[in-house]
Write a structure and sequence with these properties.
Order of helices and strands: HHHHH
Shape: elongated
Number of strands: 0
Helix content: over 70%
Number of domains: 1
Distance between the termini: 47 Å
Largest sheet: none
Amino acid sequence: MHRKLADIVRIIHDVYIIGVLILVFSCIALALISPGTKICKLVWLILIAYMGTGFMSEAVLGSCPLRLLEESLRRRDNPNFSYNGSFVAYRIAKIFKIAQPRAIVITVSFIALVVISVVVFVGMIVI
């Protein structure tokens, strides 16, 4: 039962991450195609709100609540389960069947920082 619930939480988390990526690329595309339009501003504001919820939960809880919930459910099924890093780094390691060294966590964090910086820069130009 806990494993199925953990799988559902993982799917919700995957959808959240995919949503962020879609919003990032939509924001960049709209800024290039039609900067300053209402739709461009709206997508950028939605992205900032979307990412803001993630950052606030990290700041308040020290981790994403979805990650904490999934890890808790998986530990009930397997007491030895651990992410050993971020959700995204863990998923990348799982998808590509590679070990999850510290370098992956650092690389994913750096890429996220670059993407967020680009989005904020583009947003400042658009708005």
